[in-house]
Design a protein that fits this description.
The chain is an alpha+beta fold and 172 residues long. It is globular and about 50 Å long.
């Protein structure tokens, strides 16, 4: 879960990564979709209380707004994990420097990711107490590198924007 904060005066973008295992009060629903009250649970469960589409996203956004002490989230994009490879490839691949040694990646190593390799990079999990934090750091590094790659690609080929939109819409 990442929140992009955009300063509309300067255009500066700040990304805030919110741990999926943070505890937050959230609305809970029955399997039939009936409201069952509020419960303090891990943020990652908010999506499960919905339809896998808009309702799930709205539940997650509401929970994130609680984490942010009521600051409203004006819009959101929900991307299926399977979409990472295709959107990564839509910008011509993403070169990133690994923030840790995990799976096939070595700390400090720069690698250009394509397809499934991009999914592996953002999804890999460690098994120690700090693994979640390091995974978020790796994901932040990827998002930053992806943004740079997307801008660079769009400057070379304006069709990148359409390709990126069309690709993302299939997984959103």
């Amino acid at each position: 879960n990442m929140v992009l904060v955009i300063d509309t005066k300067t255009g500066e973008v700040t990304v805030i990564s919110i741990p999926r295992d943070i505890m937050v009060d959230m609305e809970v629903y029955t399997t039939k979709g009936d409201y069952a009250g509020m419960k303090n649970q891990q943020l990652c469960l908010a999506y499960a209380y919905g339809d896998g589409k808009h309702t799930s996203c709205r539940n997650t956004v509401d929970a994130i707004e609680r984490v942010l002490f009521g600051i409203p989230v004006q819009s959101y994009v929900s991307l299926d994990i399977d979409g990472i490879g295709p959107i990564n490839d839509a910008v011509g691949g993403v070169t990133v420097t690994s923030t840790e040694t995990i799976a096939d990646f070595r700390k400090g190593q720069s690698v250009t990711l394509y397809g499934k390799h991009a999914i592996d990079f953002v999804r890999a999990r460690g098994d120690d107490k700090d693994a979640s934090i390091r995974r978020m750091e790796r994901q932040m590094a990827y998002v930053s590198a992806f943004g740079s790659a997307a801008v660079k690609s769009a400057k070379r080929d304006i069709g990148t924007i359409t390709r990126l939109y069309n690709t993302t819409s299939k997984y959103s």
